[in-house]
């Protein structure tokens, strides 16, 4: 009986690691002030660091391991070979919390047929080392995604923007930054999951809350003048003060803009 017990004990030692370090991961700030602000991911305790160790970006936090929206390889951080490091990058407000997870990926698990947008093999998610707590954005920071557009009338300018809740918002504008004395309201529209044509945009993996789209028109503009404007509300917050120059029908100068590939990119790898 004693011999059987010793044999069983020795077997446990052989199949169980003698020691293991716990990988820690932290995110600062805990709450991001506004969309586009940087977050810093720090980690430590990674045993025998590998060039294939990677950090996955998830939103919402309950996403499955395979549904990351972006990733970094840990060697992008100086000093990664010590098992510690940090990465900073801007985070876009998707109106849902984020979570970050660190995985180990082995050369033997690389599948050359499973590729990302840049034709690189997508990393595997079998070996989770650590995951962060969920982080989000501060509320009532004002509208986002502000865009201007002509309406077809020389004395008008359309402004569109997005809020998270669709509550009443207005546009303040005027010739003086300190006295934007003209105000117009906005109409609100929104699209839903069922409005999207196909997966993944209309399922749980690809759907992202678009927020509420506000549309307001600044009217009675004087020709060729610089106008200052803000959009938002007292309850939901106001945008920064922006400006534009109104149309000048008497000008003989023609300015044309031709847009093709806008070059929009993220600072991390994506699908």
UniProtKB/TrEMBL annotation:
GO cellular component terms, A-Z: extracellular region
An example Gene Ontology molecular-function term: metal ion binding
Name of the featured protein: DH200=94 genomic scaffold, scaffold_9002
Domain Purple acid phosphatase N-terminal: 143-245
Signal peptide range in chain numbering: 1-21
Compartment(s) where it occurs, according to its Swiss-Prot or TrEMBL record: Secreted
UniProt keyword terms in alphabetical order: Secreted, Signal
Origin superkingdom: Eukaryota
InterPro entries named among the record's database cross-references: PAPs_N, Purple_acid_Pase-like_N
Record-linked Gene3D superfamilies: Purple acid phosphatase-like, N-terminal
